[in-house]
Specification:
Elements lengths: L4 H17 L1 H9 L5 H22 L8 H19 L1 H5 L6 H12 L15 H29 L22 H25 L4 H12 L17 H14 L3 H8 L4 H5 L1 H24 L4 H16 L14 H10 L15 H19 L8 E2 L2 E2 L2 H27 L4 H12 L7 H4 L10 H15 L3 H4 L4 H5 L1
Length: 482
């Protein structure tokens, strides 16, 4: 049995941070004279009390983590924080049940963006800012996890981005703590820049800040049931589209660009593939809408660019009901929800680098068929791919497919129709948010789903956000016997 004291200690620290973060909606509700400030204050005190108790009872022990403790810490953190982050939803004037509240909090922290709240336009301001803050905190947590934790755990090929050896992250800053500090400063700076741009485009300060946080985090929570479509502004659509792309590129490369190496951003294989896919998909779908639907070409480009980037990056915003665009558009959106953005970003999904690795492995294998005695080494960013990375990526893709099919079957068993079940499973695992169909499509939400389905979808969000293996390894008997 691994020593749980370091795990509990760090969980306590995170709960303290969560409790402090709850003071933001306390101030917002108090400013708007909404009585829910008392709910947030009580939830904040409960989180601080629980976190402080864990810290005080486990302090003084060695906090360095071995491998099993790192797995336990990663999973437990993403369970404990939603459990406490759900408290304001339960006791606010929304009066959600704990199932719905946990679903909303898990969706926020994993930056999925699926919601069970109806009537966002009239929801308390503290609740709206808390939803955005959950996604914003989840976004920075995902970046840190992707560059500092997942490479160490060697999950799904993420060892490719190990700080000690990757060309894209080597010698950026002398120590990991300084590197995380640089990431946090960059994250705050980009959020502020997005908020200013949205304010200049005509949004109120409240809406600008709320949407800036969920845009950079590629989360997708909005302050309206109509999402970003509520504003009906081309300039807002363009700004949000650009910052969704910014949030989907590797943050480590932004730091290198700021340190005088801007060309590394363009030279990165996954960045180029991501941008190429965005351009191809937008042009293809916009052309199809222009030729087959009542869209002008500028309008088709505006709506397809926004919604393609939103779904592909896992943000989940919507400016139109693409279910009404026809079966071809629906099929495109279903496929691209699995793609995701780049590793080391706030984006989710399978990730672009895994598709690049898969293509490199396939190309090498095909060349071996023609030249059996030749030596063909698959490469990534010009460097040979280690065999462990190729095997990890193939295992991840296989497991993703298996879990996707199993989750779909489970959701069908709870009473959901096939379209809702299959798109809900895909949306949860890829952390996208909206699915397909009239119930959970871009014009609907998850409120009417059975409680059992919501718990399974929350589990899917956790699995998808933590790269599958991180969670499933805890279920193996060998993990606890090691």
């Amino acid at each position: 049995m691994p020593d749980l004291r370091p795990v509990l200690y760090v969980n306590g620290l995170f709960l303290l941070m969560l409790g402090v973060a709850m003071q933001v909606p306390v101030l917002v509700d108090a400013n708007y004279h909404n009585p829910d400030w008392q709910v947030f204050l009580a939830a904040s005190l409960a989180s601080i009390f629980a976190g402080g108790g864990l810290v005080l009872s486990t302090r003084g022990y060695d906090t360095r983590l071995e491998m099993r403790q790192a797995f336990l810490l990663t999973v437990s953190t993403w369970l404990v924080l939603p459990a406490f982050g759900a408290l304001p939803f339960v006791f606010s004037e929304l009066d959600l049940g704990y199932t719905e509240a946990f679903f909303e909090a898990m969706s926020g922290l994993t930056t999925t963006g699926a919601t069970v709240i109806v009537g966002l336009d009239h929801a308390p301001p503290g609740i709206l800012i808390w939803r955005s803050l959950l996604q914003w905190l989840g976004g920075i947590g995902i970046i840190v996890m992707a560059v500092a934790v997942m490479p160490m755990l060697q999950v799904g090929g993420m060892q490719l981005f190990r700080l000690e050896s990757s060309d894209t992250s080597d010698k950026i800053v002398p120590r990991v703590t300084e590197y995380i500090g640089a990431l946090a400063a960059l994250y705050v700076g980009l959020t502020a820049l997005c908020a200013v741009a949205l304010g200049l485009a005509g949004l109120s300060a409240f809406d600008a800040v709320a949407h800036a946080m969920t845009t950079i985090a590629t989360g997708g929570f909005s302050t309206s049931d109509a999402s970003v479509g509520m504003f009906g502004s081309a300039s807002v659509d363009i700004i949000v589209t650009l910052f969704m792309i910014v949030g989907s590129l590797p943050f480590v490369l932004y730091i290198q660009a700021a340190r005088g190496r801007p060309l590394l951003l363009w030279r990165d294989d996954q960045v180029r593939l991501f941008l190429l896919l965005v351009v191809v998909l937008v042009v293809m779908l916009a052309t199809w809408l222009w030729m087959t639907r009542d869209f002008t070409l500028p309008s088709a480009l505006r709506f397809t660019a926004f919604n393609v980037v939103s779904v592909m990056t896992g943000t989940g915003y919507a400016t139109a009901d693409y279910n009404a665009w026809g079966s071809f558009a629906v099929a495109v959106f279903f496929v691209i929800m699995f793609i995701g953005g780049c590793a080391g970003s706030t984006s989710c999904g399978i990730k672009i680098f895994r598709f690049h690795v898969l293509v490199a492995l396939t190309r090498a294998q095909i060349r071996r068929l023609f030249q059996p005695h030749g030596v063909f080494v698959p490469r990534y960013n010009g460097r040979p791919l280690p065999e462990s990375v190729g095997g990890s990526v193939m295992s991840f893709l296989f497991l993703f497919l298996v879990i996707f099919l199993l989750l779909t079957l489970v959701l069908v068993a709870t009473g959901l129709d096939f379209v809702t079940a299959i798109s809900g499973a895909g949306s949860a695992l890829a952390n996208v948010g909206p699915g397909l169909g009239d119930i959970i499509g871009p014009a609907g939400n998850y409120q009417s789903l059975p409680a059992t389905a919501k718990w399974f979808l929350a589990l899917g969000m956790l699995l998808g956000r933590l790269e599958l293996f991180t969670v499933l390894v805890l279920l193996t008997p060998g993990f606890w016997r090691a």
